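Usage example:
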Amino acid sequence: MDKVIEVLKILEENARLTPKEIAEMTGLDEKEVERIIRKKEEDGTILKYKTVIDWEKVGEEFVYAIIDVRVDLTREKGYDDIAKRIAKYPEVHSVRLISGDYDFQIVVKGKSLKDVAFFVAEKISTIPEVRDTFTHFVLRSYKEEGVLLFKDEEDRRLALVP
Amino acid sequence: MKRTGGSRLSRRISERVDSIKPSGIRKFFDLVIGRPDVISLGVGEPDFPVPWRIREQMIYSLERGITSYTSNHGLPELREAIAEYYSKFGFRPDPENVIVTTGVSEGIDLALRAILNPGDAVLIPEPAYVSYKPLTILAGGEAVAIPTTPDFKPNYDHLSKYAKEFEPKAIILNYPNNPTGVTYSKKELEEIADLAIEFDMIVVSDEIYSELTYSGKHVSVASLNGMEERTIVLNGFSKAFAMTGLRIGYVIAPEDIAEAMLKIHQYCMLCAPITAQIGALEALRNCDEELDRVRAEYMRRRNLFVKRLSGVFEIRKPEGAFYAFPKISDYGLSSEEFAERLLLEKGVAVVPGNAFGDCGEGYIRCAYAVSMEKLKEAIDRIEDFVRGLRPNP
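Running the assembly step on the lines above writes:
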């Protein structure tokens, strides 16, 4: 297995592991793991380390909305230009160019329904190339970043099995 | 009801069954019960759940009312899929020679009952999975244990000595191995194959851990020149796809042996459960990615476990399965004493090595089929325990 890929896969699953722990898991030298991580941080392969948090657990509620955006392209403005304009707002969680009826799918994070609705009305819909938008408010999330937000299975194995 | 004669327990039970010892891990099982603080490295089954797409397929089949018997052989599509799948291990069997069984456990029983006459010797390199010896005895054979410590590999010279003495009908191989995690390279298998041909033995090849091979690729002994006609391959879905409780396995055998095995299978089992067969088909068709993910995770745990414990034990880096088999005899305790004290004092359950044959004395089997956090905690506790055993300098 490619050692760089293996280190990245392990980090993607758990960013808090130390180089020593990763070395133990891969059989690589600790110094080598450090080197790989530094290099991948520097060349922008590793974008950032973050934590997946279930905010509902601490009563911090955010409103997420998925907004489908249809745009009209012009000679001067292509997809990349429009996407960059949208992406620069801190309220915008993700921007993706998609296939189908709409051109972009963006995810907006706000404090309240009103917050998000006003943001879309004032900042997204007003971009000249945006033809129309379709807003879906997220009511409940079941899986985020590959992590299930519910637990309905437990380990039922016997304690000793030959 | 009138009693006829003085029936006593020892006479009511068949002498053959009576001669078989109950499983050695029972005692430890009772010690673990009711202790939630225990981390068990004694579990010989995956900690991952069955991949969801497999479960979904089984649920869907139940909804459609697919609950009948299947042919004795098993579902034709599944046998085809198994034959096709096995080409990755070096040979493509005729689907006609594939029988779907209720786990590999049934496969071992079928194989031994199909080939043994009373008194026929069967070579069993030990440490070995716990059922080979009892099932050999139940089939009327004589189990001949071959100790393979300390490298856990039987070589030609070693085996031929036993083959000459016992003129065995068969040899049972298990690679990657439970409990040692050792597997055999193609070259090592060739040596064993030469011997099987020279002494005209049937090879019963238990390859249940084949997908969990970390160094190199698994090679089936049946793929070697002249071996398909004398090898009974046993495999299944319990370890690679975590389908343990669904009880689903298969055998690949030469035509005459497959026919004989089918005869037994059709009378004692009729067929393997259809729901599990449907799940198994999905496993072979669509679960490569899940398998890669699980294999990578086991490999990380193996690396960590062996690396961390190599400071305290003589421990061989296993090439497959999810077991490590460290030597503990340097600490002056027997396998059972070590396992019992580790459990009672530190809350870590392992299986004493002698459960897998006499030559396993002085070793313990540790299964790393637990989450990385639990594994780390277990390692800390083992290190702590061992530190207490060392005489003060």
